[in-house]
Design a protein that fits this description.
alpha/beta, four-stranded mixed β-sheet, 19% strand, globular, serine protease, hydrolase
């Protein structure tokens, strides 16, 4: 049975790293002593060690140890033996590139599908979708494929932003970019606003948090999904 938390962000305004999710994570990772952290997205170009230290500090508050995948000689073995996963945010292109480069994306998918708990934020959430093609990140590297884990039957647009009516910026909105994606692609896209997350148990996906999410489907008007909505196949059609 799949068990995932797929969050838009690691940090909401006015709180510390992962702070707003710690009550949820305490329950989600109950009986888990150690989490394998995948720091490949490394925001701002920080080192894997620096990023892992940040995750360790946050999870120490709920008495869970964190080990970075880079601390192991064999990344495949690390994933094979892990009891739980956390993939942090940063640059999705680099994250996906490293997952393919280290040949671990398939084994990670398989372990999560087998029931190993998975927690992702931002880039770590983007890779739960069918492809990474709705990331907001700059293409700083060229991964071998845009295909990701397909653990949920749609794509994620993390940090989804609504148009600001007071802004003088006349460029593309997030909605415009997603509509451009749908000119060439059929995959539904869920815009996850800050502080919102998905709770996935087996094939049931529920929207959590205080804010609604925005669902985009090719050839259809975008719709708002209230919090606590169960996202089923018929929701996506």
């Amino acid at each position: 049975m799949k068990r995932l938390i797929v969050a838009s962000t690691s940090t909401v305004h006015g709180s510390g790293y992962l702070e707003y999710l710690l009550p949820e994570l305490t329950v989600f990772f109950s009986n888990i002593e150690t989490i394998l952290f995948i720091p490949y997205a490394r925001p701002g170009g920080i080192s894997y060690s620096e990023y892992t230290s940040k995750a360790k500090e946050a999870f120490a508050k709920i008495n869970i140890e964190v080990k970075g995948i880079h601390e192991f000689d064999n990344p495949k073995e690390a994933i094979s033996e892990a009891k739980a996963f956390f993939t942090g945010g940063g640059n999705t292109f680099e994250l996906v590139n490293q997952l393919y480069k280290n040949d671990v994306i398939d084994i990670l998918r398989s372990r999560v599908e087998s029931g190993i708990p998975y927690f992702g934020t931002s880039a770590g959430s983007n890779i739960c979708g069918i492809t990474m093609m709705n990331t907001n990140d700059m293409p700083i590297v060229y991964p071998p494929s845009f295909d990701t884990m397909g653990l949920i039957p749609f794509n994620i647009n993390a940090h989804y932003l609504d148009p600001d009516p007071s802004s003088k910026h006349m460029g593309e909105t997030r909605e415009t970019r997603i509509k451009e994606f749908h000119v060439f692609n059929e995959t539904p896209v869920l815009g996850l606003r800050e502080g919102s997350w998905l709770e996935v148990f087996n094939n049931e996906t529920k929207l959590k948090g205080e804010l609604p999410a925005r669902l985009f489907r090719k050839g259809r008007e975008a719709v708002e999904l209230p919090t606590e909505t169960k996202i089923r196949r018929e929701t996506l059609s």
